[in-house]
Amino acid sequence: MVSPWPVVHAAVFALTALQALASDTFIAAVYEHAVILPRAAQEAVSPEDALALMNKNMDILEGAIKEAAQQGARIIVTPEDGIYGWVFTREAIYPYLEDIPDPEVNWIPCTDPTRFAPAPVLERLSCMARNNSIYVVANIGDKKSCNSSDPSCPSDGRYQYNTNVVFDSEGKLVARYHKYNLFRQETQFNYPKEPELVTFKTPFGKFGIFTCFDILFREPAVVLVSELQVDTVLFPTAWMNVLPFLTAVEFHSAWAMGMRVNLLSANTHNIRMSMTGSGLFTPGGAAAYYYNSKTEEGRLLVAELSARPRLSPTYPPAVNWSSYATSVKNFTEDSTFLGAVRRDIFTFSELKHEDGNYTVCQKDLCCHLTYRMSNKSNDEIYVLGAFDGLHGSVIKYHWQVCTLLKCKSTDLSTCGQPVETAQTKFDMFSLSGTFGTNYVFPEVLYSDVQLAPGEFEVLPDGRLESKNSTSKPFLTATLFGRRYEKDLKHPLRNSP
Q1: C-alpha distances out from residue 85 to 105, 141, 235, 273, 282, Å
Q2: 23, exposed or middle or buried, with CB in 10 Å at 0-12, 13-18, 19+?
């Protein structure tokens, strides 16, 4: 009689191999949520009224979570402020906060809701994850009591933090992150004393997490990727779109490409506040994205991603962002003029011909462009621009930007102002710059604020180039660089 063990071993090996193969990719989801807002965010409400509002939002989120799980998603990200909204005073947001313990306590709120102080929001989120066997990422508020023994303790005796939580597919709390880089209007929250580097491992890769404005700074965003080597970043956000460089889908997709990491970006949806734009972004571009400034409705996005992109045969090579630009002589620098992109003063040069080579310099940065238009509209003007300096009126951080962009009108004084539509297409473009940083994020944006996945590439020598003629009318191509070491000291960080 032949022993059955070799067959069993072979079957086990085959199953293990299949599981390993399956773990090479995973299905992820993000949900752009049209948040139900409180009637008066500046006024305090009862805890009961606060919970009632949060349950209305969680009813919608739960529907999205169920749908994502039915489509095979292993993890879903929901937006910043997605459970209660924004623009609160410190006192008005307090009824919405819960005391969120450190994940080291090994807690499943769904099955053990009375272990700590009442936390109905944590309990419900935990049950959403557990009941649908899916990791759930949500943004809520954390409260921590303090007293006079802590010299930084706020006068009301508590810290309040903008907080992301992650529950695994059993409903266990596995991550808690306090937002480090608060946006200026977030006076209802405190700054954490130190940046938190929050990671956790799953069968489908190593994850890191941060929130909204964090993405523009080194800590914790860059550190998570460059030093802690996460595979995928979870990114709840309430992002207000700002053309020409900082629309949500434009910058977030560029950040994923520049950092060569997956980014799961879930934005709130509020067209009055110019909030829309979510996506599942990869080192190679957008796997799925959504931008809609006309509808009032949210949207679920689901896509299959590489679990460990660094091990993928398609993982893009490292880029020396200044290699090409510093190896060539400047092209003829035509007449230049100054123009404002919001408060930032760029040096611009008008592209006066349908094809050509241009160089524009500002301070240490020279931007080179080679291009050819295919159907230039007579009432449209494009410029090459350079900016090398501090951005921001209160929080000042250093940008280096090379950009090819469409002006709002034929009046050169409108160059740099927001514009959403275009008619001109390009047969080709190649943009590069003498960047003083390795942190450069490549953006290409088409008319109606649409991305161009698969239509451009970044060469190892730092050139951003079109692969073929642009398929749609063209708004901007930008190399957005950050010189973190030149940022000024944060003026608000130590305020209690």
Answers
A1: 29, 11, 17, 12, 28
A2: middle
Q: Which of 13, 29, 111, 106 is nearest to 71 (CA)?
A: 29
How far is 350 from 412, CA to CA, in rounded Å? 8
Checking DSSP bridges between strand 299-306 and strand 25-32, what pairing results, if any? Answer: antiparallel
Of the candidates 352, 482, 365, the one whose C-alpha atom is nearest the C-alpha of residue 431 is 365
Distance CA 128, CA 123 (A): 9
Number of other residues whose CB lies within 10 A of the CB of residue 250: 28
80 assigned to active site:
yes
* Residue among 211, 194, 214, 136 nearest 170 (CA): 136
Which residue among the candidates 179, 406, 408, 425 is catalytic per the annotation? 179
Q: Using DSSP, state whether 248 is helix, strand or coil.
A: helix
Average pLDDT by consecutive 10-residue portion of the chain (496 residues)?
A: 39 40 84 94 90 98 98 98 94 97 98 97 98 98 96 96 98 98 93 97 98 98 98 98 98 98 98 97 98 95 98 95 95 88 97 96 97 93 98 95 98 97 97 98 98 97 97 97 97 68
For 291-326, letters b (16+ CB in 10 Å) and e give: bbeeeeebbbbbbebbbbbeeeeeebeebebbbbbe
Report residue 123: phi and psi, to 5°.
Answer: -60, -45
Matching residue, tokens 């941060």: 210
State the CB neighbour count (10 A cutoff) for residue 372: 15
pLDDT digits (tens, 9 = 90+) for 192-234: 999 999 999 999 999 999 999 999 999 999 999 999 999 999 9
Per-residue pLDDT tens over the stretch 417-452: 999 999 999 999 999 999 999 999 999 999 999 999
Query: Does the active-site annotation cover 212?
Result: yes
Whole-structure pTM value: 0.94
Check 110, 127, 212, 415 and give the catalytic one.
212
- 384: nearest Cα among 366, 364, 396: 366
Q: Is the dihedral of CA 396, 400, 405, 411 positive or negative?
A: positive
What residue spans of 109-182 are helical by DSSP H? 120-132
Q: Are 57 and 35 in contact (CB under 8 A)?
A: yes
Catalytic residue among 32, 62, 80, 380: 80
Q: Name residue, tokens 């040096």.
A: 347
Query: 378: exposed, middle or buried (C-beta count within 10 Å: 0-12, 13-18, 19+)?
Result: exposed
